Amino acid sequence: LITLAIETSCDETAVAIVKNGRDVLSNIIDTQIPIHTKFGGVVPEVASRNHIQNINDVCKKAINDANINFDDIDFISVANRPGLVGSLLVGVSFAKSLAFALDKPIVAVHHIRAHICANYIAHKELKPPFLCLVVSGGHSHIVKVEDYTKYIVLGKTRDDAVGEAFDKVARCLELGYPGGPKIDNLAKEGNENAIDFPKAHFENSLDFSFSGIKSAVLNYINTMKMKNIKVNRADVAASFQKAVISVLCENLIKSAKELNIKDIAIAGGVSANSYLRDTLTAICEQEKLKLYYPPLSLCTDNGAMIGSCGYYEYLSGNISDMSMNAYASYDIGKD
Ligand code: ATP
Ligand code: MG
Ligand code: FE
């Protein structure tokens, strides 16, 4: 089964052609990062307009790259939740027109489920059940993937998402947008034990909180400025990163042990973080857990992951129609 998969939830216009949920025939991503960099973050209106301008070309390229015709497509997959509604609607409307014109079924895909499914593309042997840490620009979840279309949230952030915290701290350090990769790189030159930033834990819960550490970093920078002491930005980046990543790893491993699950995956933009990958690799080796993560290109937003997720939704009979809508937020566990 071949799907044409569309992703426009934030600032990437992406279309991919995916076969049987695991084989990527093409994966075109047109990122708007250079456009939004000027504003220090994504401007929703600007994002929607650019999706409209780009989607036709991105779609044509995906078809050409895959060396197929529109006739070869069995169904259309599209991310319709969660995300920026104006952006999502561009993908959803495009998908509906295409489905109507080609007379093909259409499948609505949950963007965060799709981030998890990116692992199926990279690891052909990976099958549910497994545990997944989803860390992206807007979400931080520990999810039990019971089946291809059954997800249970075991813990989540009570305020900011991890990616959001990375981006905000990067802005305080004047590193530019998006901040995650910049902090990742700068931290390599810093001392992770230089500053003791707070780590939030909740009793009897796997939940996270990242707004406190974000304020602590800001306070630290302001205090140093008032004292006229030069801030060592690499030390701040490394210490912040260590504090955040260690809480993520602690809660993930704790839940793996509690549930006696041996297969662990990570997903979402922050799963590209080298410190997270290295730290978890070491812990999983020690704890005899198998760790899966997507290649860097499939961590941040892309169409291939939508096609993988769409395939499994299609097989489960979760087929949508022309009444499909877009949603800003939507529980990953809810159908
Ligand atoms: P969501 O998926 O929750 O809707 P999103 O789609 O905007 O949000 P993603 O595309 O999954 O988010 O990821 C983008 C986020 O990942 C940004 O916050 C970015 O800073 C972060 N990120 C990317 N690379 C890294 C890295 N190497 N280290 C840390 N964070 C990173
Ligand atoms: Mg993005
Ligand atoms: Fe995303």
In short:
The protein has 335 residues and is α/β, with parallel strands linked by helices. The chain contains ten helices and ten strands. This is tRNA N6-adenosine threonylcarbamoyltransferase.
Describe the 3D structure.
It is a single chain. The protein starts with a strand and ends in a 20-residue tail after the last helix. Helix content is 44%, strand content 19%. The strands form 2 sheets. Strands 3-2-1-4-5 form a 5-stranded mixed sheet, sandwiched between helices. With 335 residues, the chain is an alpha/beta fold. The structure holds adenosine-5'-triphosphate, magnesium ion and fe (iii) ion (FE). Residues 9-10, 83, 111, 115, 136-139, 163, 166-167, 178-181, 184, 268-270, 272-273, 300-301 line the site of adenosine-5'-triphosphate. Fe (iii) ion binds at residues 111, 115, 136-137, 301.
